[in-house]
Design a protein that fits this description.
5-stranded parallel sheet, Fumarate Reductase Iron-sulfur Protein, Chain B, domain 2, alpha/beta, 489 residues, 18 strands, FAD/NAD(P)-binding domain, 18 helices, 17% strand
């Protein structure tokens, strides 16, 4: 006798009062911003968020696709249609809870994730206009949750008795920690610096991602049961082997990022006043440059003088926009390709231009100039033109002979990329790495060559985005949980 088929659960009836054709006529709702000539002198947040009215108006634009591509193009798989429906219903805490099923850092990703390359790129509204403002809506419900949700209401999962060490408190580590503690495992996060958050806290400036928001998201995770410990350099303070053998951890996830700065190898990079972007932004973010004179100024005093950042990514923009807020007389961005090839977010480029950043495209420094006392006084640069595409698919910059010129500078910031710090690689026998020093890990499970050791984020892929690192953290958490349950490697 055959088993009768299980009846399908009828789909929830949409509470959107508009027909699809009417939804598609609605314009995308713009997020309010600080005036450029006000915000370029302070570190308060540029974007001001949606009101409930704007959020609902934007949510009404969702056409509720049967197979939402926005979910497929989100690295952590947020159920966009479901949380947008809850916004229309006015259930903002329910919308936040729905996002948290897949994303433990919604107030952060709502601000710094390049949604235009992921969920919003998959939105079908793109075919006839602008995509749904998924990132803006995510930020709205996450901020509502921050203001209205009581952390005492978090229900902890029953303990499994298994212990997991997370090395690094950046986006991949925090994501893995959140997903694993939700399964009932004991999770302990080790951070080398004195504040939790990794690149979120030392690399992204206050005007894009306020430190208070990072701390609140970390507090949420503490309430879930995650334990945090700072000032621990795994590989020096304690090794991976000691975490297993002496501390009794059952699995380890390495999410240390790629924090070793790169330089061009040109004359004068040793001069005082030349910084890596990592050092420059860390001094601003963790040493409180942005609160001068309340805190001592841990940078060269360049107020009223020229600052240049070399590079074309989001980190370069963060550095040059920060320098303007710290009082630079002129703030230049030197990029050896054209604006079309810049990897930075379009919104951030727009904001930078509005604030008065001067873009010098198709230009690169040849030498930093010494004032005779070991301090930077300027840069000798060269104009470029675009040739044939290189391995990145972008047209290769080619120097134009005889096009050299000089610019006076007090500070130059190198934002041309980072690579892997070698500490863990050198202190963990049997951990396979590639020729560039990044840890080799499975693309689907994040497993490494060492039993019980997983890795993800920039330490595996090289420098990438917050959301891609979070995707790796989710995959790792799923595989770690399966390993802890089954014992199979």
């Amino acid at each position: 006798m055959s088993t009768p088929p299980t009846p399908k659960t009828p789909p929830k009836k949409s509470s959107n009062p508009l027909a699809n054709k009417d939804r598609m006529k609605l314009p995308r709702q713009h997020m309010l911003e600080q005036d450029p000539q006000v915000r370029n002198k302070c570190f308060t947040e540029v974007n001001l968020g949606y009101s409930p009215e704007l959020a609902r108006q934007e949510a009404l634009r969702c056409i509720e696709c049967a197979k939402p591509a926005c979910v497929d193009t989100c690295p952590v798989g947020v159920k966009v249609k479901d949380f947008v429906q809850l916004i229309i219903d006015g259930d903002y805490l329910g919308a936040a809870a729905k996002i948290r099923e897949d994303n433990v850092l919604p107030a952060i990703t709502g601000r710094v994730c390049p949604q235009e390359d992921h969920c919003e790129a998959g939105c079908l509204l793109n075919k006839k206009g602008q995509s749904l403002g998924i990132g803006y809506l995510e930020r709205f419900v996450a901020d509502y949750e921050r203001q209205h949700f009581d952390l005492k209401n978090i229900v902890k999962a029953p303990p499994t008795g298994k212990k997991v060490a997370i090395v690094g408190s950046g986006p991949s580590g925090l994501t893995a920690a959140g997903d694993l503690v939700a399964k009932g495992h004991q999770v302990h996060v080790f951070e080398a610096l004195h504040e939790i958050g990794g690149v979120l806290v030392y690399g992204i400036p206050e005007f894009r991602l306020p430190k208070a928001i990072i701390r609140e998201q970390v507090d949420y995770m503490r309430a879930m049961g995650v334990e945090f410990e700072t000032d621990v350099v795994v590989g020096r303070t304690i090794t991976i082997d000691e975490l297993f053998e002496d501390e009794g951890y059952d699995a380890v996830f390495i999410g240390t990022g790629a924090g070793l700065p790169q330089f061009m190898g040109i004359p004068g990079e040793h001069l005082n006043g030349v910084y890596s972007a990592n050092e420059f932004l860390t001094r601003i973010n963790l040493m409180h440059s942005y609160e001068f004179p309340k805190y001592d100024q841990p940078l060269v005093d360049f107020r009223g003088r020229n600052v240049a950042v070399i590079g074309g990514g989001n980190t370069a923009l963060d550095a040059i926009r920060s320098s303007l807020r710290l009082g630079a007389g002129k703030a230049f961005m030197l990029y050896r390709r054209s604006e079309a090839e810049m990897p930075a977010r379009i919104e951030e480029v727009k904001h930078a231009k509005e604030e008065g950043i001067e873009f010098q495209m198709l230009a690169a420094p040849l030498e930093f100039l010494d004032d005779g006392k070991g301090w930077l006084k300027g840069a000798r640069c060269q104009k470029m033109e675009l040739g044939e595409p290189d391995s990145s698919g972008r047209r290769r910059p080619v120097p134009i002979p005889g096009s050299e010129y000089e610019i006076p500078l007090a500070v130059a910031v190198m934002a041309i990329g980072t690579t892997a710090n070698p500490i863990i690689r050198h202190t963990t026998p049997g951990l396979a790495t590639n020729k560039r020093g990044y840890i080799e890990a499975s693309e689907t499970t994040q497993k490494t060559s060492r039993r019980g050791v997983f890795a993800g984020g920039d330490i595996v892929t090289g420098g990438a985005t917050v959301i891609l690192a979070m995707g790796a953290g989710r995959r790792a958490a799923k595989a770690i949980n399966e390993f802890l349950v089954s014992g199979e490697w």
